[in-house]
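Support reply, case 0932

Customer input (verbatim):
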Amino acid sequence: MDIIEDSDGVIFSVPCFQGHLPGILKNFTDHMAFMLHRPRYFTKKALVITTTGGVSARSTTKAMAAVLSGWGFNKCYQLPIMALSWNDYRPSAKDLKKTHDIAGKFYADISSGKLHVPGAGVLVPFNLFQAMTAAETDYPTEDNSFWRKYAGMRYAPGIPLTPGKKLLGWLIYQAGRRLLRSTTVTYRK
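Our regenerated output:
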């Protein structure tokens, strides 16, 4: 995790097995599931490259990009490549151009230092978890400690938000607070 923290960008090369992430990678992302409610890589960019000998490269890159967005990655570029040969693949001119274009965008984005406005799908868990851990509880968790540093923020410091996204984050936060009033959250060690 610290290696990712020390980098500007990370390239994930992911094979596709039976239309999805391979089991060992799925085990890893499941093990790291706490990152979905304690994200940290807000200034990092990712490039997800997926190859497959048939179909589903695109759905596999989307799945991994969704996980990385949940971990806080600021932008996830996707490069799905479908090979029509299992043992004698040679990149087509189209694949080479697509690779060059996406890798160029990834590099230019990292070099620019630009931070992107997060999507609504990222604002939802950020604001819900913050709201649901704001109340004191008899069963404090790591989440309670983590979210205190973001009190009153609609997203991570330094990440740009449009006025509409700030409003959306605030509305989600308010919904989470109301939900917390009618929900009993328990946790026992």
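We compared this against your earlier run and they match. Two observations from our side: Helices lie at 2-5, 23-31, 57-70, 93-112, 120-132, 142-148, 163-181. Strands lie at 9-15, 45-52, 75-82. Please reopen the case if you see a mismatch on your end.
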